[in-house]
Each structure stands twice: as C-alpha cells, then as structure tokens.
C-alpha cells in the first residue's frame, strides 16, 4: 500500500500592504478604499478582522521578530490575538471595515472595504489585525 501526503500552510498577500491613508478630508465627507486579501496557497483558509488590542505595539514587535510583515486601516497587521467571529461590519471610530470574516479558496481573493466618514476634527488612526487560520 502506497501512501503519500503533502504538508502545506496558508500563504497569503494583502494589497496594498500598509498603511491605508485617507489623507485630509472635509468634516462630514466620506471616502472608501479597498484592500485585497489573496490566497496564494493550496488550501482554503478562513480570515477575520479584529480590532487591535491595547498592547498592539508589543504584538507588532513579536510579529516582526518572527519575520512576518506588519502591514497597517490605518494599520493592518497579522496577529495572533483571538476573538469572537465578527459577523457584520467592524466600526472603529471614523472607520468601517467589511467584510470582517470569510473563507478564501486556493488562488481566490476577497476585497475588503475600508470606509472613512470624517466626523470630528483631528486625526483618527486605528489599528486592525487580520487573523488567518493555519498560517
């Protein structure tokens, strides 16, 4: 009996990598940008987008030491923080991100929309993590 197997892991890209910068906006106006999460591997993977924990800079340092990229909506990053699955859009300050979870087949892609509604005066920056199963 001949048995073979091939062990693989999730491979992915995020374009544009980081950061997403909406630039100056008039109060009350809205802009939308799109990032594309691509599955470059041979197996399906699930993803979810989460708000970064308060100690996000510590996770970024840990991620960089492990050779992972730390892309930035205004900052996206791959992180190891787990949380409950987000079903609807994720609202963070002036930003709304959707979809916040899903599954991508091999060589497939998912467009992720980041919308900014300029509310209060001043600079708004949020940090997000994209958690990918099997990375």
TrEMBL record:
Entries under InterPro entries matching the protein: Hydin-like, Ig-like_fold
BP-aspect Gene Ontology terms: axonemal central apparatus assembly; cilium movement
Gene3D superfamilies assigned: Immunoglobulins (2.60.40.10)
Transmembrane portions of the chain: none
Signal peptide feature range: none
Any one annotated GO CC term: axoneme
Region spans: Disordered: 57-90
Protein name: HYDIN protein
Protein species of origin: Acrocephalus arundinaceus (Great reed-warbler)
